[in-house]
Each structure stands twice: as C-alpha cells, then as structure tokens.
Write a structure and sequence with these properties.
alpha/beta; eight-stranded mixed beta sheet; about 20% strand
Length: about 270
C-alpha cells in the first residue's frame, strides 16, 4: 500500500501485475476492497491500479476536506498524472462512474476504454436511506455508535441481492465505524450534488471510446432502466444485464463479473 499526498489529503493506492494499465474506481459507501479480487485475477495480464477516494477506505478522512464529485474528479486526475498513465482502461462502479466520466468529459483525461458497472452517472440516483441521510446528516452523525453500526450494516446489506457473508459485510462496514468513520459516512452523503450528474449527462454524446455498461438486473438502488438510458446516451455503448445481481454486483455475481471484465479488457486491449 502506498500513499499519494494531494492538497493535504492522503490517497491510499496500490499497483500490481504487468501489461496494459487498468484502473479500478470504487463508489460509495465502498472502497477499493470491493475490486481487489478482480484486480488480482487480472494482474497476470494487466497492470492493475486500485485507489481509495479521499474520505473513503484507507485514505484520509479529514472533516475539513471537501469530498464532492468535483474534488474526487480532481484527485483522480492528479493521481493518474502521478502514476504517469496516458490512456488507461478504466473500470468504475457506483460513484466511481461519475468521477471517471467527469475526468474524461471535463478534464480531457484520455482513456483506452471505460466499463461502467451499476454506475452513479446520470440523475436520479440514491437509495431511500441515502436520501434520508442527505436531509439529516448532522442528526445521524450523532447517533450512538451501536445504532450507527446497525444502520450501516442494514444499509450496505440492502445493496446486495443475495445475503452477504458476514466477513464481507464486516469488511465493507469497518471504514465507517469509530470517531473518524462515523461522521465521514454522513459527510460524503451530505456532499452529494446531483447537478454534477446532470452536467455529465449533457456531454455523454461526446464520448468517443469503447464503453461497456454492466448492470445487475436486481439493483434496487439504481434500477437497470437507468443503465439502459445511460448506455443509449453513449455512442456505441453496449449494456450487459447480469441476472440475479443487485447493486453490489461484485459480490452477488463474482464469477460473471470476472468473466465479463476479462473478456472486455482482452477485447479492447488487443
């Protein structure tokens, strides 16, 4: 694990393998942990990069630092420059979809290809709990730790179509516990601004690169109808439905996701 210092923030990242560069972007309330098994499986043929956005996972969670889409996009752009990557393949889930799209559409960061999995990319988005927190972030940040943990476990568990293994649920919940993690969770939800997604949507027709959209058919956080609209707005993009998978597509259908990733990356990197 390495750290990249950017504007007072510590961004945790790691790299493995050799071959064409593939960068994985996580969403909220996730971290790079969700993509790690897939990155490891691809590292024999690709150079894989994982990173935790500022305010997430193992990166710094300073309460004075903004964590909105704009800041995350700037951080991603700076990190790609730090890595010296010119045209990586990008794989993005959830919130990472908006960040990767914005880096390309507004900061002219070139990609070799883009795969969007159950992505927060165009409006509207956000689960019912997400919307509740957005309306009352200060109140929920002050609930007793045991109530907070129960809320987060239920919130994260609801993202999957199949019941999560206890070890997986614990790993996803852990970054959001304690004096640092609890307020950090509510802070990043409060910072959510859908206007960024509207701006992204207005420029989707400008995309000129291979794009694949992967979506769980049982996603209750962002229904597949939104994935269909997203794919239709991107020239040449294709939508691949994944049966029996919810928003946590990586844990609901790991074999299918791994197969789709390898097939896609082998095709576009040829």
């Amino acid at each position: 694990m390495e750290n990249f210092d950017w504007q007072g923030r510590r961004i945790a990242w790691e790299r493995a393998g050799s071959g064409p560069a593939v960068v994985f972007c996580h969403g909220t309330p996730w971290s790079s942990w969700l993509w790690r098994p897939f990155a490891e499986a691809l590292s024999g043929d690709f150079t894989v990069y994982l990173w935790d956005m500022p305010g997430y996972g193992r990166s710094s969670k300073d309460p004075s630092h903004a964590v909105d889409f704009g800041v995350q996009t700037e951080a991603f752009t700076a990190l790609l420059t730090h890595w010296g990557l010119e045209r990586p393949h990008v794989v993005a889930h959830d919130y990472g979809g908006a960040v990767s799209l914005r880096a390309h559409l507004f900061h002219d960061v070139p990609y070799a290809s883009l795969l969007l999995a159950d992505a927060v990319a165009i409006p509207p988005s956000g689960s019912p709990f997400f919307q509740l927190v957005k309306q009352h972030p200060d109140v929920l940040a002050q609930v007793p730790p045991y109530i907070h943990e129960a809320l987060v476990r239920a919130y994260i568990g609801n993202a999957a179509f199949h019941q999560l293994r206890e070890s997986d649920l614990a790993a996803l919940v852990a970054p959001w516990l304690g004096d640092e993690g609890q307020p950090a969770l509510y802070r990043q939800i409060a910072a959510y601004d859908e206007s960024y997604l509207a701006e992204n949507e207005q420029r989707l027709s400008r995309l000129d690169l291979p794009v694949r959209v992967l979506w769980g058919t049982e996603d209750t956080w962002i229904p597949i109808s939104l994935g269909e609209r997203l794919a239709a707005a991107i020239p040449g993009a294709t939508l691949t439905p994944v049966e029996g998978a919810g928003h946590l597509i990586q844990l609901d259908a790991p074999v299918r996701v791994a197969t789709e990733l390898r097939t896609w990356l082998t095709q576009v990197a040829a």
